[in-house]
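Hi L.,

You mentioned the student needs an example of a multi-chain input paired with its predicted structure. This one should do, with 569 residues in total across all chains.
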Amino acid sequence: MIVDRSYQAVTGRMAQIIEKAMGVDYSRYEREGIVFDYEALMNDTGYSLEDHIRIQQTYNVGSTPVFELHNLTALARKYAAPGKGARIFVKDEASNPAGSFKERRACTSVYHAKKLGYKGVIAATSGNYGAAVASQAAMQGLKCIIVQECYDSKASGQPEIIEKARKCEALGAEVLQLSVGPELFYEVLMMLEDTGYFNASLYSAFGVGGVETLGWELGHQFKDRFGRNPDVVVCANAGGGNLTGTARGLKKAGCDAQIIAASVDLKGLSMASDTQFNRKSFTTAHTGFGVPYATDPDHSDVPRSAARPLRYMDRYVTVKQGEVFYITEALAALEGMEKGPAGNTSLAAAFSLAQELDQDQIIVAQETEYTGAGKHIQPQLAFARKNGIELKFGDPRTEVPGENIVFPADPGQLKAQESDLDRMRSSLIRRQAGHAAAPLTDADIAYLVEETRSSPAFVKKVLEELGK
Amino acid sequence: MALKNDWVRIHRNVLEPEDRTGKLPEDTKKVPLEMWVKGRLQDEKAEIGDEVTVMTCVGRLEHGRMIEVNPCYDLGYGEFVPEILQMEESLRTALFGGDGK
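Structure written out for the whole complex:
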């Protein structure tokens, strides 16, 4: 049989390829109107939180330490109003086997793939998730292919992505590297068809369910150590799985901490542009993923994403590239820890947000990530300079992504900026209501309230403006 | 030159510019979607630039133009960035006073 491998033909077969490559029939979760049963998708995996914990313990994932950052707390208090400046903590996710929280996301996917008899796993990622899947595949004895968006048309690649390719290969994975473009998913679909491997999607319920252990651990770690919950947990936000899983886990641990999303502000840079690809210094945790995935979760490599961050976030702040590099240096110079840089996005925000809180309150940046050659502020800033990006000190709010990186001239200039969450909620409502074939019912409206963590009045107001 | 079973890196255009999806920025539309992968050479021997077949580490066959034999990683810590030192000194000064030295 001759298989049509044209772009249109392959993407047209997406639903059947994904069903075969994951064993999940997503149509089971579609209800009347625009309603999709999110909780049914999450509960149908067959893995409870306790199962995720047990599987992760078996494969050396999780149980990461929480560190109090005394010097960063003291520094934040110097710039806060009297009595302000919460205690800053970080969860050291870099101590997972492959160096990031992403291993929580990979572990059950690989376990499930093996249980169902797949010979290997495939993941589309230029980030830490590749190393996480490769590590788990090595540990659990499956083959692994990582598909990366890596180079521009001059074959120049971000040092951070090239390091992740090296790490994946070191852990035994095949790394297929591509130039810039969203057709990466086309390549992945063809690979899934050719190999019969499992699609270890970042956006599956197995993956996002795996992150629940992070929130659950956090809740218990603070209760055990301080007899109380943290007041604020800051989660870096890109595809939304980190925040979604952490928030769900915190809730299951009985922790009602405020959940704040943080992304690096890359406003104005197109993520699919060949010429702008190497003008950014962050390849993840940035607004180029964070905003579109929050407002339209279902445009990934699965028909329905398990990462739905607007259901859980209380606030969404942005920080500048220069601010995250600065806090990365501060973590090394003042706390004796080299981590990141991208994994310090939530820490940069936490340093600023701590100054809004009282001194007896607790704020947690819920991740760190590994660092090393290529994936480190020195090579990343050297690469930026080589690509014509100006490096300077000043007010980070003047930073223009793709033109310059502005480091705070003093720590007091590191200020997380508030994003308009209602605008994002409205955007999600407009998009999903746009898919409706019939007039919206009360059930549709209740679903949109859940999707946006808003109120019926808010949803109705947006719908009225839309004429629905 | 590479011989059969040598570890090599190949390159191939997956989609030519005219075959790419419509939802792309203008600059990306003008260039092909390219692919790079490593594997063991399946041809008896080959020179750089030859069309070859390789077997990747998971046992998958791929074809393309051979661009490197025994491909190495050349990533490092890049050129010195003096601003990092300036950040470090100013952070110490901000917390502990003095001149950051």
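You could point out the following to them. Chain A has three domains: 7-54+100-205, 58-98+209-418, 421-466. Chain A has a mean pLDDT of 95.

Best wishes,
N.
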